[in-house]
Design goal:
The chain has helices at residues 11-22, 92-105, 149-154, 218-228, 279-297, 305-314, 316-331, 333-342, 344-355, 360-386, and strands at residues 2-7, 27-31, 44-46, 63-65, 67-72, 75-81, 87-89, 109-112, 116-121, 126-130, 134-142, 161-171, 182-186, 193-200, 203-210, 241-247, 261-263. It is an alpha/beta fold. The structure holds flavin-adenine dinucleotide.
Length: 397
């Protein structure tokens, strides 16, 4: 019997497995796809990830972001510039393979190319059935991404909003319309979302995702963005791959632990509802889960609940603020951009969130006065014209 069986070896699974292996526990990690595997993802890491990962991951950084260009067809483009890194760009196949290797080096037994088919929780053990074998563990951790088998087997019920994103890789060694260290966020390309261009060593990752509404327009928007985005003129067309984006779904939050099971990363819907950042939260939740599982297995904690308490304390309040900002941004993109254009200090403070110097909460507390005044001036004729009602939960509080 293993102490812990981790299902899925993306950033969440590799992190929780490595930390538990380092803690001296016996860990089996099961990954459906052969490693390295492609993951539909922009591969953008906010710079605050530095505080969570061992420095070895830096060898995988393909580009460091110092400028974010925000654009919208009906607003002036504006740039967030920083002499310090704002974000790092990685390719997920190489990045995830690196994290999986770290888990192996920590003593974790890694089985890739082995799909989990079913998970059962009994009073004294969990049973994990795969395409090859049947395994027993004291604890199982669902790190198997959006709509994963662990959540489906052991955590019935609605978990949050499932949106979708589309992505493609453009092979190009030269892309003259993008400056070194620059990434593009196009807030007009997708209704209720944005499209992006992220540079990598051997090309560009291009994508589009939706964060509100019914989630039916991202695919078309992706195709249209490829046609119209000036940065991409003259470059080869990439293929299009889609993937679910399991956003934080708001209160009341669903359970993340049972007696012997935990959910981390995308499996737990820990994706930021503002810009869809999930890797940072996958790693962070993996670390929190490892801490709680190790304490439980060593007899230092009665159950796995401290993990849920950590998420409720550190991550959910952040997502609650991010969800409020998302509602404003995607409902009123032009006024939002107009406001930011006029309040450059605010966007610089937002960069501090990505660098890990501010939380969404501290950022919002400082920015809301300025935002309220600026938005109030601009939105009043807008709201009157559209009879738009701001839901109570989204009011700038
Ligand atoms: C289009 C798009 C763009 C994105 N861009 C970004 C970005 O730029 N930056 C960012 O931070 N986030 C981004 N995200 C979100 C990010 O990709 C996820 O949040 C992140 O991958 C979550 O990591 P994870 O380890 O929880 O899950 P995953 O990375 O999805 O890993 C889950 C693993 O579990 C395995 N698995 C699934 N089922 C089974 C099974 N039955 N048995 C065994 N193994 C199984 C899968 O093969 C996979 O390897 C993007 C998402 C999308 C869709």
């Amino acid at each position: 019997m293993y102490d812990v069986i981790v299902v899925g070896l993306g950033p969440a699974g590799a992190t929780v497995a490595a930390d538990l292996g380092r803690a001296g526990l016996s860990v089996l990690a099961l990954e459906w796809k052969p490693i390295p595997r492609y993951k539909v993802c922009g591969g953008g890491l906010s710079a605050r990830i530095d505080a969570l990962l061992d420095p070895g991951y830096r060898d995988l950084i393909e580009a460091t972001t110092h400028t974010v260009r925000f654009q919208h067809p009906h607003a002036h483009p504006f740039h967030l510039r920083s002499s310090e890194p704002i974000a790092y760009m990685v390719m997920r196949d190489r990045f995830d393979a690196h994290l999986a290797r770290k888990a192996q080096e920590a003593g974790v037994r890694v089985h890739d190319g082995e799909r989990v088919l079913d998970v059962r929780e009994e009073a004294d053990a969990v049973e994990v059935i795969t395409t090859q074998h049947r395994y027993l563990g004291k604890v199982v951790i669902g790190a198997d991404g959006a709509g994963g088998i662990v959540a489906r087997s052991l955590f019935p019920g609605h978990r949050g909003r499932m949106m979708s994103g589309f992505e493609g890789e453009i092979s190009a060694l030269d892309y003259p319309r993008l400056q070194a260290g620059e990434i593009v966020f196009d807030l007009g390309a997708v209704r209720n979302g944005y499209a992006w261009v992220f540079p990598k060593t051997r090309g560009l990752s291009v994508g589009a995702a939706e964060f509100q509404g019914k989630g039916k327009t991202a695919r078309q928007a992706y195709d249209a963005f490829l046609e119209s985005e000036p940065t991409l003129v003259g470059l080869p067309s990439p293929c299009r791959r889609g993937h679910a984006l399991p956003l934080y779904g708001g209160q009341p939050e669903p359970p993340l632990v049972t007696r012997r099971a935990m959910l981390v990363g995308d499996a737990a819907h820990l994706v930021d509802p503002l810009f869809g950042e999930g890797i940072y939260y996958a790693v962070l939740s993996g670390k929190m889960a490892a801490r709680a599982a190790a304490k439980y297995l060593r007899g230092e904690a009665e159950d796995l609940q401290p993990y849920e308490a950590d998420i409720a304390h550190e991550i959910y309040p952040e997502f609650q603020v991010a969800a409020r900002m998302a509602w404003y941004l995607y409902t009123f993109p032009q006024p939002f951009l107009w406001m930011i254009d006029r309040l450059p200090g605010m966007i610089e403070r937002y960069a501090d969130v990505l660098k890990g110097r501010e939380t969404y909460r501290s950022f919002y507390a400082k920015a809301r006065g300025e935002a309220k005044a600026a938005l109030g001036t601009l939105l009043s004729p807008w709201q009157q014209r559209n009879s738009a009602k701001i839901p109570e939960s989204n009011a700038l509080k």
